[in-house]
Amino acid sequence: MGNQEPEPRTDPLGIPPHTADKFQGDGRVHEPSVMRSIAAAMSKNLQAMEKPGVSGRALADVQPGAAQFGEWIDAKVFGSTAGRDGAGQKFGQVYAEFVKAYKSVIAAIEASAANHAEADTRNEGG
Length: 126
Hints:
Elements: H1 17-20, H2 32-49, H3 56-60, H4 73-83, H5 87-123
Helix pairs in contact: 2-5
């Protein structure tokens, strides 16, 4: 009877084997509760970045001068550079943009968790 070729894998859904291989997972699992805990930890860190009562606009208005950095030579040089051409203000603006972006990341994680939770509910027929 000779050598016979092995029976090709069959999928009950009729997905060809070369296509089914593309859907193999890499072991990652989505967990909305984990996503939410990450967003909560980031929110806690955000509170440490923002002083109560100080808006991002106030941070953008920071204008350090030489005196804020100290009296030794290097501090005076650095202070004059930081104050020159609004470098201190630019730092405040960059910091305010960072805080804004950080908030966007937190919101995106929370939205992703909500989307995953909703999809899980729909997939489970709930």
